[in-house]
Write a structure and sequence with these properties.
- This protein is an alpha+beta fold.
- It has one domain: Endonuclease/exonuclease/phosphatase (Deoxyribonuclease I, Chain A).
- It is built from nine helices and 16 strands.
- A six-stranded mixed β-sheet has the order 3-4-2-1-16-15. It has a six-stranded mixed β-sheet with strand order 5-8-9-10-14-11. A two-stranded antiparallel ribbon has the order 6-7.
- α5 packs parallel to α7.
């Protein structure tokens, strides 16, 4: 099974550029998890059903139009579709701040299959002035608690834009960016907690070192010079990790300031 994750930074824009179909035709993911669709289901679902009939589509759109939102395209019908983080968890955390209520922004979408869950997440950005760090310190443990809850039932693969470079290997200029959004101690600690809880960063199972990035600034030819950040991940339960045969980053796929990431897993 090929599982892909891609922050498209506006799925209608990628489609309008004529870049979604070539990607799907070439890579043929069995499951595609999408972040930052910036679309309501009724704006795109009917059109995409005609264009991509091989996929069942599931959308979790923000209440605010044109903002955030997630989707999953799958060739296999799920047993259950779960939108958001359960209220039993969110009520324990302060997930609403001056920027908005993150529980209403379509940031988490999960599908249950026979033997595993697949969850995708679009983690809130800390902001240039780090004013959303307090939110991140609530969001990160809330999402981890949800993944642990799922993992207690059956193994989980979860992926998306985590808006953090975990280690100095995960960005081109770690010294210059230490303490900046995406590379603060608080955000990195949130990712540390995922690993300490037993989930594994699948890409690092296969490849170490710098130079492997998933997001690039629009400024200064950053993508062409590969001055980037690895902030998009596929994470795995311990129960599935030995079944994962490959993990990839796909910087040649254009259409967004992020590129897709993927794994191949024998399930």
């Amino acid at each position: 099974m090929k599982l892909y994750s891609w922050n498209v930074n506006g799925i209608r824009a990628v489609e309008k550029k004529g870049l979604l179909k070539p990607f799907l035709d070439t890579h043929a993911p069995d499951i595609l998890c999408i972040q930052e669709t910036k679309a309501q289901e009724d704006q795109v679902a009917a059109q995409f059903a005609e264009l991509y009939p091989q996929y069942q589509q599931f959308w979790h759109s923000a209440e605010r139009k044109g903002y955030s939102s997630t989707a999953i395209f799958t060739k296999t019908a799920p047993k259950q579709v779960l939108k958001g983080i359960p209220a039993s968890i969110t009520t324990q955390y302060a997930l609403n701040d001056d920027y908005g209520d993150t529980t209403k922004e379509g940031r988490v979408l999960t599908l249950e299959f026979d033997d595993y869950f697949v969850s995708t997440v679009y983690t809130p950005n800390a902001k240039d002035d780090l004013s959303r760090i307090p939110m991140r310190q609530q969001w990160d443990p809330a999402y981890l608690e949800y993944m642990l809850e799922l993992d207690a039932k059956k193994p989980v693969l979860f992926c998306g834009d985590f808006n953090v470079a975990h280690t100095e290997q995960d960005l081109a200029r770690p010294k210059e960016n230490k303490g900046n959004k995406g590379f603060t101690n608080e955000e990195r600690a949130g990712f540390d907690a995922l690993v300490e809880a037993g989930f594994e960063d699948t890409f690092r199972r296969f490849k170490e070192g710098n130079g492997h990035y998933t997001w690039w600034s629009h400024w200064g030819g950053a993508r062409e010079r590969n001055v980037g950040w690895r902030i998009d991940y596929v994470m795995s339960s311990a129960a599935l990790i030995e079944k994962i045969s490959a993990a990839h980053i796909h910087p040649d796929v254009m259409g967004s300031d992020h590129c897709p990431v993927s794994i191949e897993v024998n399930i």
